[in-house]
Design a protein that fits this description.
The chain is of the alpha/beta class and 247 residues long. It has helices at 17-28, 40-52, 67-81, 104-132, 143-147, 153-173, 191-194, 198-206, 216-227, and strands at 8-11, 32-37, 56-61, 86-89, 135-140, 178-185, 238-241. The protein has one domain (8-186, 216-236): 3-Layer(aba) Sandwich (Rossmann fold). The longest helix is centred in the middle third of the chain and has 29 residues, at 104-132. This is 3-oxoacyl-[acyl-carrier-protein] reductase.
Length: 247
């Protein structure tokens, strides 16, 4: 039997990058994936990719900052499958600028998606998991949330905040047999980073003792482990998948 056989998972921001790779990984492990994103074309592409691999998936459009849309996402998933076994709060954005130049809109937009969006989905999912007395909530933090980064006041604040929410939820939901963890990726090779100059990529690789950037598969593997029964005694933790990056 596959590791996530008969497992129902919701993955936000699943249309591209780490989210897409995670959706494909979960499907390959036997999970039924609810692919969530803002872009319908991206959703359809991921759902079709999963189905071509004989996996199971549906797509739902949802803006995680909109509580009504989040309610619809959770209600539709439960109506379709009867339960939610895991949710991965992967959706996130950046709007970088130094502290003295950062505009209020840049700060607010990142807080709204990366922090409040995680709260919205996490809160609504927790209500379902508390009632069913099982489930796993996985949140996307970042190495930036642990160590900070030049020009990312807003992003670092959200990713540190996600860690705080993760640890708080783990304490609140443990008695209901719900586990809550987060993954803190380091520098990952994605379509966005591939466009960076070679000298920047070399600098990022040089920060890791392993001498390379991470891959989306590295992060997807971490999520799959934490969602599985193999991690049944792990909750409230931050799993750094960063190749050993330190400040």
């Amino acid at each position: 039997m596959k590791r996530l056989e008969n497992h129902i998972t919701i993955i936000t921001g699943a249309g591209r990058g780490i989210g897409e790779t995670t959706a494909l990984k979960f499907a390959s492990e036997g999970a039924t994936v609810v692919v969530v994103d803002l872009n319908e074309a991206d959703i359809n592409h991921v759902v079709e990719s999963i189905q071509k691999l004989e996996g199971k998936a549906i797509g739902i459009l949802c803006n995680v900052t909109d509580r009504e849309q989040v309610n619809n996402l959770i209600e539709k998933t439960v109506a379709t499958y009867g339960r939610i076994d895991s949710v991965i709060n992967n959706a996130g954005i950046t709007a970088d600028s130094t502290l003295v130049k950062m505009e209020e809109q840049q700060f607010d937009s990142v807080i709204d998606v990366n922090l409040k969006g995680v709260f919205n989905v996490g809160q609504r999912t927790a209500q379902v998991m508390k009632e069913q007395k099982s489930g796993v909530i996985l949140n996307a933090s970042s190495v930036v949330g642990l160590y900070g980064n030049f020009g990312q006041t807003n992003y670092a604040a959200t990713k540190w905040g996600v860690i705080g929410m993760t640890k708080s939820w783990a304490k609140e939901l443990g008695k209901h047999h719900v586990r809550v963890n987060c993954v803190a990726p380091g520098f990952i090779m994605t379509p966005m980073t591939e466009k960076m100059p070679d000298k920047v990529l070399d600098m990022m690789s040089g920060k890791s003792p392993l001498g390379r950037l991470g891959t989306p598969e590295d992060i997807a593997n971490a999520y799959a482990f934490l969602a599985s029964s193999e991690a049944s005694f792990i909750t409230g933790t931050v799993l750094s998948v960063d190749g050993g990056v330190v400040t």
